[in-house]
Amino acid sequence: MTKTGAMIDEWYPVGLFSQLTETGSKTALMSEPIEVTRTPDGNAQVTSGDGRVLPVRVRYGHVWSSLGNPTKELFGIPEADQPGRSFVDVGVVRVRCSPLRAVENFLDIAHFPFVHTDILGAEPHTEVENYNVEIREDEDEVWATQVKFYQPQAAKSAAGGITTEYMYRVPAPTCSVLYKTCPPRPGEWDVITLFVQPLAEDLCDVWPWMALFDDVTPMTDLIHFQQMIFLQDRSILENQIPALLPLDPGMEIPTRADLTSVAYRRWLKRHNFTYGAQLVAQ
Q: Which Gene3D superfamilies does this one have (predicted)?
């Protein structure tokens, strides 16, 4: 097993397809230098530092690649093919934290009133109600359902405070998909994703992407709203101790609100997804 463990054979975002050029851009994947380019025929190509051509997929506005040999296809998001949605490439935010920490923070509900005050949460509405968490064996994914939380501004399209319902899905070690109440269409879900590129064990690029029903809000405003939310998270992420995500159950004491995090860590450990993790107390 290499230093990257089982995660070497997973798919990772490495750039926005719309921003590819034939001159290419240099980046990294799991501490290895890579280059992402657009070929003369308009396709995406990713090469390693030693010139090896890596596997490539283009989906959800992003280029995906792997240092290994993925045994399964990139996970599906059915809403990405649903007519009438606005597809929002939010851009990238570099964060000095474990890529696994970035995903876990995205799964955390309890921080809303304290980090995203008067937007995704507000006092005195701080209690996390009971919700369901499971590892779905057929899909091999972590799911949290029936998550409800009061939010002063659940989305850019929201006109006022509402109790928002969430579903969280973890289909890959550094990716999470959030389904939440769609203010303009209560019968539908807004989809907000977090695609994380592990640059190193303690450094990552975070690529949010959204599939929304919102025909009113300008694209620039949608992007700025989501960037604002994640930039509020960045300061928290960059100051977490330990820097890597602890997978030993005895290293941190979870609360009832942390059920999704507990399941995520258990799932990571089961699959030996340990790049960016701390296995034992130091």
A: Naphthalene 1,2-dioxygenase Alpha Subunit, Chain A, domain 1
